Amino acid sequence: MGLAIFKDYGGCSARRLTMMKNRALWVALLVLGVSTLLMVFFVLPRVSPVKEDASKVATPAVDTAKDAATQAESAVADAAKAAAEKMDRLKAEAVTAVTGMKALFAEGRTPAADAFATAKAVARAAVQALVTLDIPAGIDATLDTAMKTARGGAAKALALIEALPDDPAKAAGLIAAIEGALTGTETPEAAPSAPAPAPDNAADAALPRFDILRVEPDGSTVIAGNAAAGSRLEIMSGDTVIATLDVDPSGDFAAVLDQPLPPGDHSLQLKATGKDGKSVTSEEVATISVPANADGKLLAMVSKPGEASRLITLPESVNSAAKQERVAATDSASAPAAPAAPESGQTATAPTANQPAAGDAAAVMNPEIQVSAVEIEGDRIFIAGKAPVGGTVRGFADDTVIGNAVADASGNFVIEGRITLSVGAHVIHAELLDAAGQVVVRTSVPFNRPEGEQVSVVAQNSQTASGQGGAMVPVDLAAFEKLRGSLGQAFALLQGLYADGKKPVLEELAAARSASEISLKSIADFRPAAAAAKPIVDFVAATAAKAAKAYTALQGLPNDIEAVGAELPKIAALVEAVLSPSAPSSDLALPTAEAPATPGTVPAEPVAPQTTAAAPKTIEQPPLTESRNSVIIRRGDTLWQISRRVYGQGVRYTTIYLANSNLIDNPDLIEPGQVFEVPSEALPDAEEIHRKRLSGEKSN
């Protein structure tokens, strides 16, 4: 029984324990449920707004960054697209303009000067627009390269356009090079163009030559010219090749140097190598001085043995006075003139320095031959003098023939040869020959050869007091008339821009106006030979004064299309006053053998002896005297080169000019056979005078 009670008691305890466990489970479940409800309905609603607010803050920042990046990419893409379209458009316009200019020369035609000038101006404006094309930053590398290439090609093409000569016939063979530079064609094929004027002889025809030399102050250089068709051309600076190109089938070439010439002096020549491997080098030499800084001035010239040097005007701006000025020298001072040998009879003695220059009328009216100076360098001898234009002169040292020479268009000659002359007395003879090789007139002049390897002796200056240097040189009336003809063409182009109510673009106006201004200035600055006949001198002076008046009026107009058009009739009247007067008869400048010679001139042909039985007429000149400051101008000499040799710097050439100003009738030209005095020291302001010349100022 006790056991049964114990069992009953144990069963009750077990049930009670189970119930307690169940109750605890339910309490736990209840607590969990309540907690869940609290979390869902109370805690979470309070936490969610904070997250939402944070999300709201973060989202706009991300969106703004994405929008900015998208907009930047879009802007670059738009800029690139616009730039590419602009490049294509400008390039197409430039190619069209250049092609239009080229079309004027199709089938070997040579266009009228005004049509060519207009096409050239249009091409210049179109190519200039491509040169100034702006390249946006950040564009695709491929597009950036393409745009830089297009702009670089346009810059080369523009330089070639600027260098084109005004004469269409001379420009014909250069157009293909412009098209090639613009389109990136390295060696464009060009149809044969109008042939260039034939050189005087076959030897000259085989040599390359400079037709155009354009140099910018930074050394950028454009060269155009002619060489054997199909040859390989090298532009040489000393022994260094600075450019190489193939000459097109017309024989013309044009090149823009890839690298500007560095500051300093440079001498360039052209070397052409044919397909047979044979090379020839130009006789012409381009002498260039590039300034070291922005304050300096450049000078460029082309010289050729036997010809006067061609100085190149400076490429500064369309209407720059410096571009219109000749740059060889200044307009001031005077100096001893080159003497001329007189004649008073069958055997004559030239006046001494103490005699009046015009003491004998015949001596002034009919000089025939004279030795002006002799230079000796070792065993080389140079005899300079004056003779009738085109006359053949034979020179002797004592009784030894030195050589022959032909008097140039100014009556100058230089005979060059080799002979060893001892120190002491010698005699120079010069004979003027006729067409049959017979002696017409002879001059003899004694001199004492000084000691030294390099010595000079010169004729006594019988005409220093009067300043009548170069009395044997007739005025070059044809040169003055050529200037007037150029003015007529240039001004006709300017008038044509306004014809029939038209209005030119500013670039066309600038080009035509500049051409007219340059022509007027050239006429205004023209100076006839000091010994020219009075009617010629008066005509040139009166016409030059009218040209100066027209030049001042035209240059004073504003750079405005309307203003120039309004004043054009007044300018036309002034230009007409320059062009309308008729020039005096050329007989005044070039007398014939049958007519009395005009003072200051020589017969166009050598004069035959008065009687065949008589011996040739002989002129006895006073002895030549030593001069340590004289120089005979030889083939290829320039003032710049002489100055560089004597004074160390070419820019001091003004010293030489001022000492010989009345020997240099045209400041741009010095001619073989002239004898210049070269001061021992350069003027202290020689470089300042040079700068004034370049800026158009007058020197004192």
UniProtKB/TrEMBL annotation:
The chain crosses the membrane at residues 24-44. Gene3D superfamilies: LysM domain. Residues 329-358, 586-609 have a biased composition (Low complexity). Keywords: Membrane, Transmembrane, Transmembrane helix. Residues 629-678 form the LysM domain. It comes from the Bacteria. Coiled coil: none annotated. This is LysM domain-containing protein. It comes from Ciceribacter selenitireducens ATCC BAA-1503.
